[in-house]
Amino acid sequence: MTRPEFPGISGKSLARGVYRVQGMHYIPRMNFHILTFGCQMNVGDSQWLSRALRSRGWQETTDEQADVIIINTCSVRDKPEQKVYSLLGRLASIVRETGAFVAVGGCVAQQIGAGFWNRFPFVRLVFGTDGVAGVPQALERLASTPRLRLSLLDFSEEYVERGQDFPDASVSPSAFVTIMQGCNNFCAYCIVPYVRGRQKSRTSASIISECESLIARGAREITLLGQNVNSYGQDAGGDGLSFTQLLRRVAVLPGLARLRFVTSHPKDIAPEVVAAFGELEQLCPCLHLPMQSGSDAVLARMGRKYDRARYLDIVRRLRQARPGMVLTTDIIVGFPGETEQDFRATMDVLEEVRFERSFSFKYSDRPGVAAERMAFKVPEEVKAERLASFQARQAELTAEDLRAQEGRRVSVLLEELSKRQDEGGLSWRGREPGGRVVDIPVIDGGPDLTGALATVRISLARKHSLLGEMEGTP
Ligand code: SAH
Ligand code: SF4
Ligand code: F3S
Fold it and tell me: Any idea which ligand is nearest the CA of 81?
């Protein structure tokens, strides 16, 4: 139904809104736009929010058509945090034009909280990760109550379950399922435990029921998410299942083709998880295993609780369990006190492991973390130099790895058909089991193959991805 004449509701933000009736109440249905920064946990939260709002009759649109713009933020380094402020600065003129309002969620929202309201009056909702479940109702209240502002910033003791009953909202063939929130590790450089709270595992029953519902609606691949998935169940939450037991349960769900998980702390990888890579055919042969540094002295100061030898031993066992295992990592250069020799040690491990890909960052001071108070901060230009040499060598290793794929026949989960940058044709995009991105040019759209597992011959390695030719779909 279209917007009724409804006494008591006015305001520009409702101009495009339409309404559904629930009991005696008119509930607004609006246009929304979500912008997501940060890790997969934020991506997972945004995907849930999008499904929840669409199932309420809201429509996902561009920022200029939106009645509410939702920003899911990251505060892991200074740069992403600053991005949020400059984005809000830019949005000021759009919302002045359109009358929309803004909701800020995620880790910067948790950190700054209601402080946003003073600087950016058009921000009418701030929500932390434990508040995501309440966002759809909060947005509906805000839409029908001009001038109201709300915050959902409390941490809860337990994992806050979110509604999953969205029969009409489509899902991507590759879906995320959160299995835990928060982190207890307090690595010296990291703000995550402060902005995501303590570790809280979800019950296996709700994880499995969400996986089943996603598979029923078209997901073929599931990535289990958490800041430290290997310590799943080792807190007051969960229901007694270990991470490996959970993996085994999810892997055999009918209709699931592929299983992945992220992120793993090396100190918590159990021998059973390594063994699972050799036994579970659905478990993809790739693991993101953040190393942070190759120097034992730096690892000790970071509070990572493993050393270089232990890290390399896990790598050796993983590759033994699953030949062809793809390993990716996170690296911080220029942690306080990092010497040239420490940095060499990181370069040595890169040479030894030959990561297929990595994410590397300059150490960035975060408010309140232990490293902020450490002496011997590394000068900016030294950090920049170290980062550039790490990234240059990684780029060579990635290029070698991609070239080695040429001529191989791989299975690709087709995720989306998109316009090609080059001659403007169309191309299917997906990933092979190791997580390498594969583009498959097609003459015309043809049948909708979203979610199909295609057999693809890799024809060419590009800088960050592969080009392939479709040989068959099941
Ligand atoms: N839970 C994950 C990491 C989450 S944060 C884990 O334990 O591996 C993602 C990455 O950001 C980290 O692995 C680290 O490499 C980087 N990072 C975190 N804090 C940082 C800081 N203060 N400066 C630079 N990089 C940082
Ligand atoms: Fe941060 Fe360490 Fe927790 Fe990862 S394990 S989120 S790096 S504190
Ligand atoms: Fe960023 Fe928060 Fe993830 S700080 S990396 S979005 S947990």
Answer: 3
- Smallest CA separation from ligand 3 atom 7, residue: 192
CB of 185 sitting under 6 A from ligand 2: yes
**Strand partners of residue 146:** none
Atom of ligand 3 nearest to the CA of 227: 7
Pick the atom of ligand 2 nearest to 303's CA.
2
pLDDT class of 114 with cuts at 50, 70, 90: confident
DSSP letters along 87-127, please?
A: HHHHHHHHHHHH--EEEEEEHHHHHHTTHHHHH-TTEEEEE
Domain 11-152 has CATH 3.40.50.12160: yes
Taken as a whole, the chain contains a residue count of: 474
pLDDT tens digit string along 413-433? 999 998 776 667 899 999 999
Cα of 118 vs centre of ligand 1, distance in Å, is 30
Question: What architecture is domain 285-404?
Answer: 2-Layer Sandwich (3.30)
Q: For ligand 3, pick from 107, 108, 262 the residue to mutate: most ligand atoms within 8 Å of CB.
A: 107
Q: How far apart are CA 411 and CA 455, in angstroms?
A: 5
The CB of 364 under 6 Å from ligand 1? The reply is: yes
Ligand nearest to the CA of 178: 3
Q: Is 424 exposed, middle or buried (0-12, 13-18, 19+ CB in 10 A)?
A: exposed
pLDDT tens figures, 19-65: 555 555 555 678 999 999 999 999 999 999 999 999 888 999 998 88
Q: What is the pTM of this model?
A: 0.91
- Hey, which residues does 412 pair with through a beta bridge? 454
Q: CA-to-CA distance for 192 and 75, rounded, in angstroms?
A: 8
Chain region(s) in the chain for CATH 3.40.50.12160: 11-152
Question: Which listed ligand is nearest to 76 at the C-alpha?
Answer: 3
Is 409-472 assigned to CATH 2.40.50.140?
yes
Domain with CATH 3.30.750.200 in the chain: 285-404
Q: Please write the tens of the pLDDT for every residue from 299-353.
A: 999 999 999 999 999 999 999 999 999 999 999 999 999 999 999 999 999 999 9
Known binding residues for [4Fe-4S] cluster: 39, 74, 107, 183, 187, 190
- For ligand 1, is residue 75 a contact (CB within 6 Å)? no
Top-level class of domain 170-284: alpha beta
